[in-house]
Each structure stands twice: as C-alpha cells, then as structure tokens.
What we know:
Elements: H1 21-36, H2 48-55, H3 66-91, E1 96-100, H4 107-110, E2 118-123, H5 125-135, E3 144-149, H6 157-162, E4 171-175, H7 184-196, E5 203-210, H8 220-227, E6 236-237, H9 240-246, E7 249-253, H10 260-266, H11 275-278, E8 281-288
Parallel strand pairs: 1-2, 1-4, 2-3, 4-5, 5-6
Antiparallel strand pairs: 5-8, 7-8
Helix pairs in contact: 1-2, 1-3, 3-10
Amino acid sequence: MPDATRPPSPSSSPAPPLDGVHRAALWTAAAHAAEYGRESPYVRDPWAADFLHAAGFQGGPPGDGPLQRLLPDWMVVRTRFFDEHLLDSARAGGRQVVLIGAGLDTRAFRLDWPTGVHVFEVEHPALLAFKERVLDCSPPTCGRRSLVEAEPADGWREELLAAGFDPRRPTSWLCEAPMYFLPPATVAGIVDAMTELSAPGSTFAAECVSSRSGSSPFVAPFLEALASIGIGWHWQLTDPERWWAEHGWDAQVADLYTLPYVVERFSHHLPLLHEVAKKCVFLTTGALRDAN
C-alpha cells in the first residue's frame, strides 16, 4: 500500500477522454477519494485523488436528484462488495481476474491478493495510458497485472488471449458498472465471450439495473441528467437470475441490507430508501453453469 503522502502525479499528464462512460470512472474516483479521508474507510484507494488532480476533475454525476445525493456512498458500498467477492473467488482458486471496463480501478494495487493472481484490465487504450501515468510505476499487490487495450464494447477476445489469459484456468470476471451504459445486444456479446472463455469453477460479478425503476421519482431525474450528457441506462433487467442463466451462469442478487457495512453507511439515507429505491440496482454474482 503506498504512502498517502506521496507526491501527486504530474499535472502535465493529459486527461483521459471525458465523454460517455469514461466520465463515470471519475465519478467513482471522486467517491473513493472522499472515502479515503474517513477515519475508517470501507475502501482504501490512495490513487483516487491523484486521478482527479491529473484530470482536472471536480464534482460528480450531473443533476441533484435523490439518487445523485446517495450515489457516492453507493459507489463505495458497491466497490467494497465486489472487493470481497473477488478476494473470496481468488482464495477459492480463481487466480485469473478479468476487469471488463476497468476504468480507473486500482484493485491490482490495493487488495491483499493471495499468491499467484493474474489481473487483466480491459479498457480503452487512452484511458489505460492516462491511468498508467498517474500510477507512476506503483507496484501491484497481485502476482501479475496485464493491460488489454481494447474498447470493452468491441471484440477483445484475441487481445485478452494475447495478454496471457488461459481459458483452461478458472477466472473471476468483474463488470462493475459499465455494461448498463451499452446496448443489450452488445452486453450479450460481452457475456457470451466471457462464457466461451471460462473454465469450470469460473465466477462473475456485475452491477445490473432494474427495468422496473426507471420511471420512478427516485431514478427518473438521474436518467434525465445522464441523457443531457449523452449516456443512459440502455441494458436493464427485470429478472437478473434468469438473464444470466440464459447466458450460461448460475446467478444470485445480493440482499445488501443483510450486510452490516451497507446498513451502517445508508442509515442517514433512510428517508430516500423506499422500496423502489432499494431495488433499482442489482449487485449480481454467480458461477459458470455445470455443462452436465
């Protein structure tokens, strides 16, 4: 773990593209930077503030609806949930980890990985280049880290294999946020590629959004604000378990309000958390279905 007082990355580092989902990567970095300043942070990401500084970024998601007000805390809770899932999967034998749409993810550097984990980061080349300049040769905590320079929405199978990915080994796949910004057919293609490349024992984790909440007073102002900057929730699900089963995975949606850190963090948001709000997003995990 780097010293929190290390010098910030050079301000001369060019900013990453700030259109579309790349901007959302900076929203998460802003949430992580604020979290790192807490006395007992759920996520320790000392690089997050450096990303914001190097990009000249201030602020967060557009608009000021109820969802936007709790979104920073949600991003932290989401990160913590997927951190624990990936570590559990790695300890169970999934020593290949593939981050689809890695953005400014620093899990390869900040998590206490078991020995022999190989982390692959699939992301747009320009965003990866910016990220590398800010990381400034920081040593990873995993055994090996490989960059896969490919737009997640495009074909990245060959690039992943060329980076050393072994489809004969169990893999932990993570699609933390970017897939719901994509057309449904594109998402299906991504997941089908994951399925094709997965050995028995592979797992996945993904954030999915509910098709039943888009018109609610809680979600609609956020979707309108996203539309104003040219992005939106295009891939929406009614039944995540069924959708993932159709693509080869046994899936389950987390009951987040059984997790102590979720209850603690969202206690001050209770006036906003009516039934629709609690079910507008699904944190979904699962395992490759048995071919037999």
